[in-house]
Amino acid sequence: MVFELSRPGRRAWSLPEADVDGPSLEELLPEAHRRAQPPNLPELSELDLVRHYTRLSQRNWAIDVGAYPLGSCTMKYNPKLSEEAASLPGMRDLHPFEDDDLVQGALELLGTLELALCEATGMARMTFQPAAGAQGELTGLLIMRAYHDAAGDPRRRVIIPDSAHGTNPASVTLAGFEAHETPSDERGLVDLGALREALADDVAGLMLTNPNTLGLFERDIAEIATSVHDAGGLLYYDGANFNSIVGLVRPGDMGFDIVHLNLHKTFATPHGGGGPGSGPLGVVERLEPFLPSPVLEWDEGAERWSWDHDRPRSIGRIHSFHGNFGINLRAYCYLRSLGPAGLRQVAERAVLNANYLRALIEEAFPTAYPGPCMHEFVSSAARLKRLGVRATDVCKRLIDFGFHPPTIYFPLVVEEALMVEPTETESKETLDSLAAALNQIADEAEGDPELLRSAPITTPVRRPDEARAARQLRVRWTPADPDGGS
Amino acid sequence: MTNLPGDRRYTRAHEWAMESDGRILVGITDYAQDQLGDVVYVGLPEVGTMVTAGEPLGEVESTKSVADVYSPVTGTVLEKNSEAEQAPEVINSDPYGRGWLVAVDASGSALEELMGADEYQQWLEQEVDS
Ligand SMILES: Cc1ncc(COP(=O)(O)O)c(C=O)c1O
Where along chain B do its domains lie? Predict the structure, then answer.
C-alpha cells in the first residue's frame, strides 16, 4: 500500500513561493467548507511513487503482456494507433463546455462514428452517452418503457433467456420491469415454444444476444422477432457478442429494435481498470424521439454540427456531456483503419480462432453443446469433479502457464463452465500453446490433482479467500498498528 | 453422494420444506449449496411478507453466482433466520439445520404435493445426467 511507504515530510514536488498576491482562502471559501486539518495523504518522493506504481503494473496481467481468453469480454489487442490519436492535444485537451463552433471537428468525428455504427448495426440513430454495455442496457430499457407508455400501453415484464449475462436481469429490474426467464432448449438456443407461451400482452420486450453466451448463433432469430413483434413487444440486442458478426450480419436486419455496442469489446478500446468504457445505444426510427438528450444534428444549410436539446419525448440525460469522448475517438480510429473489409475479417477470424481452439481441447474439456461455435465456446470441466478438481482449479493452474484464465461458472446453464474467447488478434502459435497448457492441466488433474488445487504457484498472491472477502468486505485500508497512523 | 433427510419434502428447484411446531421451515438442499459454492450473502423477505409457491422468496449469492430461492409453499413469513443472514456460511455447513432460511405459516400449504426424498433423488440423477 502506498500509505505504508509514507514518511512524514517527504514530497514528490516543490513549488516556488508565489510572487503574486491572490485572494486568501478565507475570502474564497466559507468556513463550513474549509478543512480544520490537512487530509491524511501518503507522503512520498517522486522516485518512491514511480517505483511503487511501476511495480504494481508489472504484477498486473494485461493484453499487452499475454493472451487473455476471457469469455464474453472480447479482450482483443488495443491498437497503439488509436492511443496516439487519442493523445493528440487537439483531442485530449478539449473541454466539454467548449462552444460548438470551436469543436466542429470533434462533433464531425462523433457524427461520422454514429453514421458508421448505425450502418454496421442497421439502426437509425445512436447515442454515445452510455459509459458501458450495462448502462446502454438501462438506456434501451428506459426507451422501451417510454415507448409503451407513450402508446398508452404500459407493460410489466421483459423476457430474458436463462443463458443471459447478469447485467440483463439487473438492468430490467433497475428500469422498473420484472424479469421473466425463458429456458434454452437441447440445442442451447432459445426454446421457441416456451418463448411463445411466455409472450403475453404485458410483455414489453425480449433481450437477446446473438450469438448467445454459449457462443451459438440463434438460428430462429427471424421467428423469434416475428413472435415478439406480433405480441406488441420490442426486441433488444445485447451487443456484447457483436465481434462475431460485425460486417457480416446486422442486428437491424434480424429484426432488433434497440442495440447496444460495447466499444471496449468489438471496437478494441481499452477495458482499462474498470473504465472508462463506452456502450453506445442505437434505435430504429420509431424509437428515435425517446433517445437521451441532446442529440447531435448536422445543419445542411449552415454546414454546421450542433446539439439539439429540444427533445420533449426524450428519456432525459443518462451521462454527463456526451459520454466518454476519448473512447469513442479510439473506436473511430479502429473503424477507419480497418474499413468495411477489415471489419468482416475481424468477425471471420474471431470465429475461426475460437473453433480452432475448441477442436484442440474438445477431448479434455468437451463443449456443452456440440458442433461449431461462433467467436467463443463454453466447455465443461465437470469430468474432473470425480478427481476433486473444479473449473476454478483448472483456471488457477492456467495462470502458472502464463495465460489469463477463461471466464468460469457462466453461463449458469452449463455445469463447471469454462467460457473461452480467444479473439481474432491471437496467432496460431498462441492458440497452440494455450491448448497445450489446457491439455496438460487435464493430465495433471489425473496424476496430481493437489497441484491444481494449490495453484497458482508462480504469482505474488496465491489464492485470495474470495468467500471471506465477500462476506467481510473491507475496501478501505487502515493502519495495522492503531497508534502508528492516524 | 448428496445428503437427503427423509423427514422433509423437496422441490425441483432444490429447496426443502418441513413442518415444525405448526410452521413450515424452508431452506435449500445440500445439492444446491454444493452447486453454488461458498455462500456470501442471503437476501430474505421481511416477517409478514406473503410468499407464493413457485415464486421467488429471496436470493442466495455465492462467489460463483446468484440464485433465486423459490418458495415451496404459499403463506406468510413468520420468521427469518437472522443467523443465516449474518453468517451465510451456515447454509454451506448445515443446509438442513442451522442453515434454514424462513419459517412460513402452515395454512394453505400442501407439503404432500412436493417430492419425497426418493423422488427428489431420482430427479437429481436425471438432471445431472442430462
Ligand atoms: C453478454 C454481456 N452482456 C452485457 C455485458 C455488460 O457490458 P459492460 O461490461 O460493458 O457493462 C457483458 C459484459 O461482459 C456481457 O458479456
Answer: 10-106+115-129
Map out the domains of chain A as residue ranges: 2-59, 80-336, 345-471
> Could you tell me the sign of the dihedral formed by the alpha carbons of A176, A182, A188, A190, in that order?
negative
* 3-state secondary structure at position A173: helix
Domain A80-336, CATH class in plain words: alpha beta
Q: What is the ipTM of this complex?
A: 0.74
Residue B1 confidence (pLDDT): 55
- Residue of chain B minimizing CA distance to A407: B64
- Among B40, B65, B66, select the one facing A467 at the smallest CB separation: B40
Buried b / exposed e across A459-472, counting CB within 10 Å, b at 16+?
Answer: eeeeeeeebeebbe
CATH number of B10-106+115-129: 2.40.50.100
Tell me how far apart the alpha carbons of residues A334 and A418 are, in angstroms, rounded to a whole number. 30
A410 vs B: CB within 8 A: yes
Q: B40 CA to chain A: closest CA distance, Å?
A: 5
CB-CB contact of B89 with B38 (8 Å): yes
**How many interchain CB pairs under 8 A, A with B?**
22
A238 C-beta closer than 6 A to ligand 1: yes
Residue A469 pLDDT greater than 90, yes or no? no
Q: What is the pLDDT of residues A216-272, one digit of tens each?
A: 999 999 999 999 999 999 999 999 999 999 999 999 999 999 999 999 999 999 986
Ligand 1 atom at shortest distance from the alpha carbon of A277: 10
* CATH of span A345-471: 3.90.1150.10
Question: First vs last Cα of chain A: how many Å apart?
Answer: 16
